[in-house]
């Protein structure tokens, strides 16, 4: 599972890595640093967790002439590239968890051809209307037709789960805008939509073949202008990641956000990424015939991070540039890291454990803050480097402090 996914918008990340990033030469980085009146300066490399495929590395490798198969073999050693077909995938629409949605026309001025199938198999073909609204009521869903621009009248009450299918494309307006990935208030896709009730809440799941799903993923995770081999490597990783998530033990397989992979439906489709999906059709990475958890991130900073399994190893990456980022953190921000009842001042910060491998002894795993609590009593607080990174909104935990 990816703890910090790759690009939300690849162009934004590219800018974040480039703007104001100092060169490696002359950077003095240490495991510990005193906190001055100005705070501390943190240096780091990479963007993301650094496990598996590095997206900038895939592009660098493609520019050196490597094929997509060679790229994924480098980032996931010991795996086999196998054909697994085009199974169905269920995508949870996170923006409307416990909400509702509206069916909008895909073409023309009306929604037509939609079939609603209720629990038990009862089917209703929805008459052509300008739009249809769907909302939960107890153990059922109300399918409502418009009365005015802002009011609805219930036409059908259908026992959950209810599946909406029929047209080649469904166009869904959310009751609440999606704030992750590309965001927006709607999604269009080729497939069906199921309204379920889980954990006492309304949930909505888009279902489609996995390669159709990828058409809304690959261009959201990597710039569509990048080299074909890089796009194909990203596609293989994304397909493998999704395939490994397929499970009959829950009502969905993947979420449409960074919690798994960005999926934004047809608005994300590009000709180049669709071509990459077609070129790699059905291909996934396996170990002993089983799809792996193909984690990936934007940039590993020139050294891959270990993932606790044989195909996620720590090693030098000659294809990913080792550009360094920097961040100044104020004393007040440092003192807030352990909560309002914790440290009132921080006098020093120290990395107490590293992963090994790469610069600075590898990625930070634990960090220690030394300072005082209320009343001036000395205190020391330890936290994971992941918590340290997230709370400070750092690009990665491949970091150290300026001397």
TrEMBL record:
GO terms for cellular component: outer membrane-bounded periplasmic space. Residues 1-25 form the signal peptide. Keywords: Signal. One of its GO terms (biological process) is sporulation resulting in formation of a cellular spore. Residues 200-286 form the Sporulation stage II protein D amidase enhancer LytB N-terminal domain. Pfam families: SpoIID. InterPro entries: Bact_Sporulation_Assoc (IPR051922), SpoIID/LytB (IPR013486), SpoIID/LytB_N (IPR013693). PANTHER family: AMIDASE ENHANCER, N-ACETYLMURAMOYL-L-ALANINE AMIDASE-RELATED. This is SpoIID/LytB domain-containing protein. It comes from Cryptosporangium phraense.
């Amino acid at each position: 599972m990816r703890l910090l996914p790759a690009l939300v918008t690849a162009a934004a990340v590219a800018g974040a890595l480039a703007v104001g990033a100092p060169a490696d030469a002359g950077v003095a980085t240490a495991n510990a640093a005193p906190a001055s009146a100005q705070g501390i300066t943190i240096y780091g490399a990479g963007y993301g967790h650094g496990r598996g495929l590095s997206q900038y590395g895939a592009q660098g490798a493609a520019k050196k002439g490597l094929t997509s198969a060679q790229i994924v073999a480098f980032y996931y050693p010991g795996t086999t590239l196998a054909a697994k077909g085009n199974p169905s995938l269920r995508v949870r629409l996170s923006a409307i968890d416990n909400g509702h949605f509206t069916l909008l026309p895909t073409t023309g001025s009306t929604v037509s051809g939609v079939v609603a199938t209720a629990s038990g198999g009862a089917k209703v073909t929805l008459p052509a209307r300008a739009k249809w609204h769907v909302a939960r009521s107890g153990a059922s869903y109300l399918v409502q037709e418009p009365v005015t621009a802002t009011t609805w009248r219930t036409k059908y009450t259908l026992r959950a789960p209810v599946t909406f299918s029929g047209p080649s494309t469904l166009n869904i307006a959310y009751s609440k805008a999606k704030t992750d990935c590309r965001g927006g208030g709607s999604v269009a896709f080729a497939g069906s939509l199921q309204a379920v009730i889980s954990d006492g809440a309304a949930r909505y799941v888009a279902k489609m073949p996995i390669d159709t799903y990828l058409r809304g993923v690959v261009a959201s995770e990597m710039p569509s202008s990048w080299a074909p081999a890089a796009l194909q490597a990203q596609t293989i990783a994304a397909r493998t990641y999704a395939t490994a998530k397929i499970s009959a033990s829950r009502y969905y397989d993947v979420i449409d956000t960074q919690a798994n992979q960005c999926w934004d439906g047809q608005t994300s489709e590009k000709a180049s990424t669709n071509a990459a999906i077609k070129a790699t059709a059905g291909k996934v990475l396996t170990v002993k015939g089983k799809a792996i958890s193909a984690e990936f991130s934007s940039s590993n900073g020139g050294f891959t991070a270990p993932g606790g399994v044989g195909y996620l190893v720590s090693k030098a990456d000659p294809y990913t540039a080792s550009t360094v980022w920097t961040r100044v953190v104020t004393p007040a921000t440092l003192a807030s890291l352990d909560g309002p009842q914790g440290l009132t001042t921080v006098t020093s910060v120290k990395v107490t454990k590293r992963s090994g491998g790469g610069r600075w002894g590898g990625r930070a795993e634990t960090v220690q803050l030394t300072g005082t609590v209320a009343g001036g009593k000395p205190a020391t607080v330890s936290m994971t480097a992941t918590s340290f990174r997230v709370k400070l909104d750092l690009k990665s935990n491949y970091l150290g402090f300026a001397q």
